[in-house]
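Sequence only, no structure available. Ideas?
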Amino acid sequence: MFKYFSSNYPWNLAVDLAIEMGAKIGEVEAMCGPLQEAARQPDAAGVAAFRQSWCDMADKLCALAEEDEARGRTLSAGDKYGRAATYYLTAERLMAHGSAGRTALYRRFLGVFERGIALAGENCQRVEIPYHGGHLSGLYVRAEGTAGPAPLLLQVNGLDSTKEMKYRVGLPHWLARRGVASLVVDQPGTGEALRLHNLTAVYNAEVWASPIVDWLETLDDVDPRRIGMEGVSLGGYYCPRAVAFEPRFACGVVWGANHDWRDVQKKRLQREGNFPVPHYWDHVRWVWGARDMDDFVRIAEDVHLDGVLDRINVPFLVTHGEKDSQIPLVWAQRTYDQLVNSPKRELKIFTDREGGCQHSSFDNSANAGAFIADWVAEVLGGRTAAEAAE
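Reply:
I predicted one. Tokens follow.
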């Protein structure tokens, strides 16, 4: 794990995620160099300094992108807007719920991200899926080099990630090259669903996963018989739960198992394990719509997979980092052990040898992501070799 701030795990995690999303090391140094003292301050003061530094860099990149646009250099502009969006999101993600300016910053991020995608001509389309009288937002990435309806992997967030984070880390791109499409969604409790529509998380993930499958079945370029699902971090709970109760999924993948999130919360109350964001308890109450800590603890009691996984009768891949300091490795083994009716279950532990050994491989997503993409392509009928695309 790259540790820019020696004593601040949430900030190190934020920096590492930004790098995985394409941040440039020189820009990271310019943003983080002045923040060493702030990293040791209380959360509110420290996060304010972090936000200012990262937003200043994003503002500068947007100004440079506007200069590129004025000269007709839209590819260059798109690249700069893309990194600016990553920096805006990194700053927003660390802010406490209800912080002044957080919603405005999030909306700024969304606009800059969309501008960058459009100017760069990326294979990425914003979509809206009908849900409970409103919608869930997603990013649709089409399979490359395919003829006819393609297989697709639905990808969902963890506790504090967003669809744009998952898109930028790279799994949709790696899958597209293998002939597999992607739909990356801000499910209830994450991204736009939470921030703009107040859709909080629910333990029974099939409630929102099934309407997404309904929508996917209306797309002419998606094969409805080859729709799989992947979840990262807390998505390592949502995904198995949804696959267990939605029989139309053809496979499942967890990038970081999360078999018993209720136990993880009990341990965190005892100060065991690292927190992914500052203001952690405020954040989880916001995500789950809890009135107070007692209400949150009650809600968390349902967030586990015991008694659920024997319903799964499709291929399933469980991955976990050997050095995950947020979710103990034992929970990956528990998920694997309970997949007793999966015809093709696999447990992959990422180690120092291949990298990706930290939580959900945020230390090095490339090799871990390639392993997942290859497994999905093999199961859903994509490809794993370039010559197969010719």
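The mean pLDDT is 95.
Hope that gets you unstuck.
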